[in-house]
Amino acid sequence: MQHPRQFLLGAQASTGFLPVCDHYSGVEARMRKSLQLQAELTQEFGTCVFDVTLDCEDGAPVGGEAEHAELVVALALGAAAGNRVAVRVHPVDHPAFEQDVATIAGRAGGRLAHVMIPKVESPADIERASRALRAAGAPDLPLHGLIESPAAVHRAFDIAAHPQLQSLSFGLMDFVSAHGGAIPSEGMGIAGQFSHPLVVRAKLEVASACHAHGKVPSHSVVTEFRDVRAFGEAARRAAREFGYTRMWSIHPDQIRPILAAFAPSAHEVETAAAVICAARDAQWAPISFAGKLEDRASYRYYWQVLERAHQTGQPLPAEVQGWF
What we know:
The chain is of the alpha/beta class. The protein has helices spanning 4-9, 28-45, 65-78, 97-108, 123-135, 150-154, 156-160, 172-177, 197-212, 228-240, 255-262, 266-281, 296-311, 318-321; strands spanning 21-25, 50-55, 85-88, 112-117, 143-147, 165-170, 216-219, 246-249, 287-289, 292-294.
């Protein structure tokens, strides 16, 4: 029988699921520690529960971009088997962009999970990055984009439609500063970013654009990493209220709260497994389950619950483990 992932999701199966946490680091010592922590948590959870994105944009010192790119290549090639390693290169209009892609994708493209393009303004920026990957000999490497301006938010649906794009992130801090003081500084904080109308609108637009095209919406930086409770609540709201299925981490202390916030509850997992198994037994025809009609639309939802449980390292009922 066809695997539920392909049967229920079709083409979206190739773009709809990524680890729920994307951890960024750009300083050598922190990049090495991030990769070590990734390997440790992979062993703990039995699956790779977060990506490590090695950062060239904020990590490379001015004038040292080429040396930093070489370091990223060495770290990516030396990462443990099973680790998901990505890179954020410079924006497409930066002098180091072409060199970043040629060096990193050209030499470590087979080891990378994706390439993040910051400051994406239009579909043309994604297409330029796609051409650079082809020139580097890595034509199939997925692209992720970071939307950071009001104009880019306006074009989010067109950007998300690019076939090589796998995920879009919303860049809060640059978005706020792009408004010339019209959004107060509180808009960059935990409370303000979930309440200021312009920020809320932008977040929802990016998430909606991703879901319209089967891409992964990724909620970017929350800077208040010392307040674990408040950060956990922000991650929960991003997942439960704003439609994001992935979130950035900029400090190791943020990784576990993201996993917890984006993970389904044990009850949700048990229900999802029971529905999917009953649907399989009915050869995916409509069924009555606990007094409710279930059909392929709800099967799709419940399968996604199981996928998310697997991504976050949650234990799965024995009857569905064979699909993972």
